[in-house]
Amino acid sequence: MTFCGYLPYSGPPMVVEHEISLKFTSSPSPSYSEAYDNIRTPRVPASGIPLEMVLTILEAAYFDDRGGPDIHLLSKCTLVCKAWSLHAQKLLFRRVCLRSHSAFASFAHTVNRSSPRGRILGDAVIQMRAVLDYNQPGCLNQSSLAVAVANCPNLYELDLAQYGCVAPGKDVVGSPAQERMRRPAPSFDEHSLALLKNNQSVLQLLEVWPSLRSLSITGASPVLSPGVTYPPFPGALEELRLNCQREPAKEFIGWLLHRSAEEKSLRVIDLERQPSPELLDFLVEKHGETLHSLAIPSFAMHEHAHAAMRCRSLLELRTESSWSSPVICRQMPETIQHLAFGLDLDTLLNPIIDLVKTRDDLQAVTVNLWRDGHRHPQFASLQMACAYRGVDLRLTRDVRRMRLLVRGDPVVPPTYPRTQTLDSMQPAVCSVFVA
What we know:
Layout: H1 32-37, H2 51-60, H3 71-77, H4 82-92, E1 95-98, H5 101-110, H6 116-124, E2 127-133, H7 142-150, E3 157-163, H8 177-181, H9 190-197, E4 214-219, E5 239-244, H10 250-256, H11 258-263, E6 268-271, H12 277-287, E7 293-295, H13 302-309, E8 316-318, H14 326-330, E9 338-343, H15 350-358, E10 364-369, H16 379-389, E11 392-396, H17 399-407, H18 426-433
Parallel strand pairs: 1-2, 2-3, 4-5, 5-6, 6-7, 7-8, 8-9, 9-10, 10-11
Helix pairs in contact: 2-4, 3-4, 4-6, 5-7, 7-9, 12-13, 15-16
């Protein structure tokens, strides 16, 4: 018998002791750094990265996640080298915000047109936000605003917030905010108006330039003094956005849009507060024939829905409410390109799904999910219909994000939904300021 079946077995094995010592040493292989150095890597040319490529990268990274300019990134880019500095500064100066006199002083020194760099940076300003709040120490005043505007000949958009004030010593610390908001703001003096009128830019102050195209009014509703005859506003608006504490009177709207109705120029109406059926009917009667975009908080009432149905050239319909009259989707024109609405468990999705399936020009659907909107039993059907038709379905859970997605730049686009890009306002700026 053998131990494994084929080895001879010769009794118990003998135990032999051995002394073993081990010594571990690394093999003489090349180090990681040496191996990495042997890999051929691309080299930056001696002249640096082509400036055209740098500009393309900076423009692509201009907007941050909130839709505003990435100030931190662009500020760092201005410090990289002299070749980058001026171009990054021009991007930084596309949008400026003036809230105090100290901010104005720094801005005015930078865009002083007596120096070549000042003229370049002043020409780069396209959008300006200014806050005139005389209740704050060191506030921006009217003449400073006029000087700032005069130094920016290519200014396309002016967002102006003006707060009322009381006589010195009459202010009450801690007074209710609503009472402060109702205070009348001081009138512009003749010197400030003269400075403003010397600048042939657009979208500035109402009644200063007739070339105004897009207008947004927030806060207190403008009123026409009774017993005074006003000549109609000479501008032909293309876009009107209202967010007033009280609904503007039809007399003011008629005065503001008189020439717009004559020239059939109005394309966009955005009412951030629910209008009365009378006001919406008045606007649609005068401008519904050529209206491309209509936005109100809710189309739940039949009067609002029927007013929208009379706009047969609509390219975009927007609402933030989760409930709309089902008839409005069934009667949408074939030209509709963008639909935006809110969604919760009670939303009627069948009419919207049918619209997606039957409108060949539809490009995008923007949905704000209220509460448990994503649990809607027909939400998956909406997703499938959009995917099958090649419609871009954009979902948000924040109404502020939804507004950012759908509003875009203050330029009436040829197609919808609107976008926010660096190039969107260039054709309009060139056509206005070169001519």
